[in-house]
Amino acid sequence: MRVLTCNCHGLIKFPELDLGPDVKIEQYDNLCKLKLDIGADETVVIAGCSPNLLEGIFPNANAEFVNLLEHITLVNHSPEKAEQLIVAAVAKMQNTPPVKTKVFNIKSKNALVIGGGIAGIEVATQLSKNGLPVVLIEKTPFLGGTVSKLDRLYPEGTPYSHTLMPLINKLQTSGNVTQFFNTEITDVTGRVGDYKIKLKAKPRGVVECINCANCIDVCPVEVNDAGKKRKAIYYIPTFPDMYAIDFDTCTKCGECVKVCPGKIDLEQKAQESDIDSGAIVVATGLNWYDVSKVEEYGYARLEGVMKTLEFERAVASGALYPKKVAIVYCAGSRDSKHLPYCSKICCLLGLKEAKLVKDRFPDAEVYVIAMDMRSYGTYEYLYNTLRDKGVSFIKGKPSEIHRRNGILVVKTEDLFTNELLEVEVDTVVLNSGFVADTITFDKFNIKLNGDFPVLFENAGLGNYELPRGIFTAGAATFPGSVSETLIDARKASYSALSLLRQDKIETRIPQAVVDEDLCSVCRMCIGTCPYNAISVVDDKIKINEELCMGCGICAITCPSYASQLEGWNHSGLYEQIRALVKEGDVLAIMCRWSAYNATEQAAHDKLKYPENVKIIRVPCTGAVDPSHVMLALRNGARGVLIGGCYPDACHYARGNFRAKAREQILRLNLEALGMRKDRVRLEWIGKDEAQKFADIVYEMNK
Amino acid sequence: MINLKNSDPKFKWEIIKKEGGEGLLKCFGCSDCAASCPVRYFDERYNPRKIIRLTILGMRDKVLSSPFLWFCAHCHACTERCPQGIKVAELINAIKNYAVEQGYCPDGYKMQLELLQKMGRLYEVEDFDLKKRQRLGLPPIDKTIPEVAKILEQTNILKVLKK
């Protein structure tokens, strides 16, 4: 084993070290400037400056870092403490097996894109332009998704043809894209680089088509397709350029077959196919929330109460001539009984509908009833335009919509005037929020926050970070405007591209490893994992390498100590604490994401704290075992401080809550043993709260 | 209680046509005007935001017959702070002018006008006042100013009031 020391421009003074015959000590002047080669199967101790810096310089090293610069030199602590820190780190690493490098081979260079809306089209175009074979699947018979149903796009109100048609044309000319329509995924197996997917294509009915439109004249079945009337055999002017039969409503009367100059097969069978793919882009888009669940608004019960999409299509197709319209915002949104979140784009959608009415019928009266108007970014001008056009904005959430003497009445309290308000209209538009297509997310085990996969945003751990090869694009990530959706699609296509360009990917994220001999399959770890990475396969606990982020929470939860986190094994930590903690010390176990940074900041803020404070670094407070704390106390520690991120700010979602629960129990046990319970403290210490850290350790020394 | 059945959709457009009323529809209800208003500090029943919002909703009678419309002291603090650049004090003025045209002038204002027309002053100058001025060494003033009545005639205000 090697100990690499760095004197950091001569700042750090080293004690004479004697660490036994097995340990080789190497001294360097500026370690950060050297390109030292440290093998992945070697364990080392690196003593120098901040681990945050050195981790970037030695990404492959199995190293324990000793921060001599910030924990000794800059706070004027003695070289003896430096020696203790290095000895403890050596003791830890001698008992810690190296972190395994996980290798995933990218066998298939195919990219699978799920969803033929604007996001899916854009992803497929970008990938195929870069020379990758792409499979695009769409569950309806036509490309275009939600955008193809709209009359116009906000904020300008341009027809979708301005955007969608060029996108589709680019896709069709980019080559090497296999498109499946009416197709859904039935089964997914495999892992990144080697997914096997089973597809099932429902029958389209129309086999050969010249677009003569004879069939719609004879089809007896009329369907209301989200506010717009069509027949059971229909066509959307996107792609492919042929009709399709909606078999959910078709009565198979055979009239269309008689007049068709091409070929219609009413008894067509479903087709199944298998494909390989290395990466998957989920672009399944969004759905309108089922607003009939908001019963007080009377959707589906009261005639004249419509959803935004239905209203838009009905007005645009000339089926509806509204004179007085109320547009009700947040129908079911920001509501704990329905959608607890804000879908971000519906405010603008409502403004778009108001503009649609004002454009087509300038004399119509439009009332927009909104709790809050969020015309974010540059879209404010749409709101300004509509105010100038004389649309009446009422602030409030309607309590109910009912019919009085045949007229729809919307009841609300207008917060602008602080008065009860009733408005009588002929049409009510319910502007509801959006939900994602969670069925597809479930198939790919994509973790959700609410309805959308946006859980790890601030930790920088998007779906892009996980070694899974599954990416979300467009409105499947979160509802957005057309331009936002396209930007997100390009991000996702870049991620898929950079993955598929490699022959194999390597990851060195430490992971939990389960010792099957010790494991009793009690399943306690399954519930604690913030990433759904643990499951039971063949009566054995299995940790999914693609999902585990290395927080170590499961390792501490395990009552048999069967699960251990690579790089932070119990045996290693015990030895470290044994070697480090002397009579009367304060052991500070610091979360590497916040509290540890505060201890470094203390040095740069020129704060003083007692020399008996010994700092060790852990991935998460959730990975601190009570046995670590008890061992420190048994070794004579005056107190143990566990420092972590503030509630809700945990890098691993909820590790600090686990730590809090353990601290409570630990304190009860201390009392039962006749010790002062404040000898163990769990504190939230943000990365700049050096003063708080110093104050706490002073307090613990009293 | 506002029932928009009684609202007059033309009302807001009529106010906009008046001088000072142009900015009406720019209001987005932030209530900065009400928060800035010193009158409101003394009587919370006066609320410029409420007057503007009711005007936008077309509640003609409610706005024009409100006694609070006349509380505005024209300090222009609201005009200074409105984030949408509405000249709020001018706007209130426009609504007042419109109210007078529609015969909603409060009696107090009518009485003041009569006084002005009669003697050109709101405060009647008596012999006692003249003596007091003399004692203080100030020059005497006229008991009436007939020019003011002429000005009032020129502004058409009297005809507007009689309507």
From TrEMBL, chain A:
Pfam families for this protein: FAD_oxidored, Fer4_10, Fer4_7, FlpD
Residue ranges constituting the 4Fe-4S ferredoxin-type domain according to the UniProt record: 201-229, 241-269, 510-539, 540-568
Cited InterPro entries: 4Fe4S_Fe-S-bd, 4Fe4S_Fe_S_CS, FAD/NAD-bd_sf, HdrA-like, MvhD/FlpD
Molecular function terms, GO-annotated: 4 iron, 4 sulfur cluster binding; metal ion binding; oxidoreductase activity
Cofactor: FAD
Keywords: 4Fe-4S, FAD, Flavoprotein, Iron, Iron-sulfur, Metal-binding, Oxidoreductase
Cross-referenced Gene3D superfamilies: 3.30.70.20, 3.30.70.3270, NAD(P)-binding Rossmann-like Domain
Flavoprotein recorded as keyword: yes
Presence of keyword Iron: yes
Coiled coil region boundaries: none
Family recorded in the similarity comment: Belongs to the HdrA family.
Protein name, UniProt field: 4Fe-4S ferredoxin-type domain-containing protein
Organism of provenance: candidate division WOR_3 bacterium SM23_42
From TrEMBL, chain B:
Entry keyword Isomerase: no
Domain 4Fe-4S ferredoxin-type: 26-85
Gene3D superfamilies reported for this sequence: Alpha-helical ferredoxin
InterPro entries xref list: 4Fe4S_Fe-S-bd, 4Fe4S_Fe_S_CS, HdrC_iron-sulfur_subunit, Helical_ferredxn
Entry coiled-coil feature ranges: none
UniProt KW keywords: 4Fe-4S, Iron, Iron-sulfur, Metal-binding, Oxidoreductase
GO cellular component: plasma membrane
Gene Ontology MF annotations: 4 iron, 4 sulfur cluster binding; metal ion binding; oxidoreductase activity
Protein name: 4Fe-4S ferredoxin-type domain-containing protein
